Amino acid sequence: MRPLADKARIITSIGAGPIGGGWAAFFLARGFKVQAYIHSMEEERMFRSIIDTAWPCLESIGLAPGATRDNLMITDDLAVAVRDTDFVQESAPERLEIKQALYKHLGELVPEGVVIASSTSGLTMTEIQAECSTPERTVVGHPFNPPYLLPLVEVVGGVATSDDALDWVMEFYRHAGKEPLRLKKEIPGFIATRLQEALWREALHMVANGEASPEDIDRALRFGPAPRMAIQGQCMAFHVACGEGGMATNLDQFGPALKLPWTRLEAPELTRELRDAMVDGCNAMAGDQSFEEMAAERDRRIVAVIKACRD
Amino acid sequence: MRPLADKARIITSIGAGPIGGGWAAFFLARGFKVQAYIHSMEEERMFRSIIDTAWPCLESIGLAPGATRDNLMITDDLAVAVRDTDFVQESAPERLEIKQALYKHLGELVPEGVVIASSTSGLTMTEIQAECSTPERTVVGHPFNPPYLLPLVEVVGGVATSDDALDWVMEFYRHAGKEPLRLKKEIPGFIATRLQEALWREALHMVANGEASPEDIDRALRFGPAPRMAIQGQCMAFHVACGEGGMATNLDQFGPALKLPWTRLEAPELTRELRDAMVDGCNAMAGDQSFEEMAAERDRRIVAVIKACRD
After folding, report:
1. Mean pLDDT, range A135-150, rounded to an integer
2. Which CATH number fits domain A10-182: 1.10.10.10, 3.40.50.720, 3.40.50.11810, 3.90.550.10?
3. Does any CB of chain A come closer than 8 Å to the CB of residue B234?
4. Is the dihedral of CA A178, B196, B252, B296 positive or negative?
5. Which of A122, A191, A223 sits opposite B151 (nearest CB)?
6. Contacts B53 to A, Cβ<8 Å
7. Distance CA B135, CA B256 (A)
8. How many helices (H) and strands (E) does chain A have?
9. pTM score, two decimals?
10. pLDDT band at residue B243 using 50, 70 and 90 as cut-offs
11. Chain B partners of A156 at a C-beta cutoff of 8 Å?
12. Is A144 on the interface with B (CB under 8 A)?
């Protein structure tokens, strides 16, 4: 039976790779009991080494009370891994036929109502849940590598997923210490990966055209926009960079620059609706902070990030 | 006359806006004497407030010996601003006719051989230097906002720029404490802005299509890829994420995923040459570090960045 989101205690983690191992390490550090399913006990050593490698970092961030690696149970029996479980995080190989077969089993084995989340980065839950007899409790919960450190989890359901399951998993991830982001639509690549993929393709184009080396690209990001992006994202970075006028100034003034050949990505049509959505969104995020307060806060944090990168 | 790059002492900063003011603050903090040109003395108060706002951050990073805001001279007389100068950093408004007229003057006023660098983000030096009588010493030196904190400066010449001037300015910026990046070609948007622009256009498309809000985009970046990008860039982030196999595994395994509709940016053709350029570039950056060492280093630094973002 599905527990209250803040009462979940036993987590099933499926998969012996860096994502499955990373999730197991994360949940152990947050004080949960973890029942890990690996495909073969021959993978146990590698799986444990992922957790042992992650542990010192998790300790330095701060363990939850009672957190210990002794709370880990490892099995190659799926039925044992999901016994009495409160939540399943699935990180099996990224192939549709494997995931579909797995969800067919999980749909019957996992206790009634318990939510099953997939770490998939490239498949949709509508595809994955196609052969599952209880698809209403299956969701995407896509982490970022390394999953024991980066807080983001992108959450979205398939056509057969219930709102209940989505509400529950958002609350559960938040309670567990993650930063879940609920998608409005089931789009390929979700949000963060799409943004990263646009940047990545532009980078590949530049290398292909002899315009930059991989090292140029990494240095450009590390010493340029990335430290600011880690603190403000991109919308608020532009909002604050434009002073009092904020995002409205950015779009009204630099809107025409969208048509310049500054990337191989085609420009979106800057309609009135899009402009207003951007401006309203940034104003909402800014709340009652003044431009000066936000700029000062940005600078203070960039200094901290620069120092952190330097050490 | 052009001094040795590590002997420059007097800097001319042109422009009263956030970029001109930011550069002035940076050079003062690094112990230089700064002769600032502003268009009208009515802008003096705003200009000084940019420097005063930046100063506490610069202090917390650490001032150079002898650095003081008393080393600042402000004038609305261009000839006075460039008198005896060792280097000119120009941050005038981003309009071609203004820059061209300015470089016509600077070409005659600035002491012989002294390098003139433009903060332009959108124009090319080939265009800017068109009416300058001494174009061989004019270069682009494009900073990232805020220029007193983010270390990146993108450097590229126009058709008439000499290699000497480019060599000098690379050494000068490095000596001054910046991270200059010399571009192989004069491409629109340079490197960092192109990467950021690809990501930005994808973000605007998502908002336009109701797939994400500005807040979703910022949260996705801040809690997902950005902290890692601040440390590793994007090439090394993928190289290290793929374990022993590195970038070769990434491209050979996920190459076909480039064709997936994960962004509106068209995929580059993944030729053998491109693959090898990416793999060789990452291997060169990795040097003799093992995958485990790099992953451990990444994690240690992500923890520091996450703590820095949190405080």
Report:
1. 94
2. 3.40.50.720
3. yes
4. negative
5. A223
6. 292, 295-296, 299
7. 46
8. 13, 8
9. 0.90
10. confident
11. none
12. yes
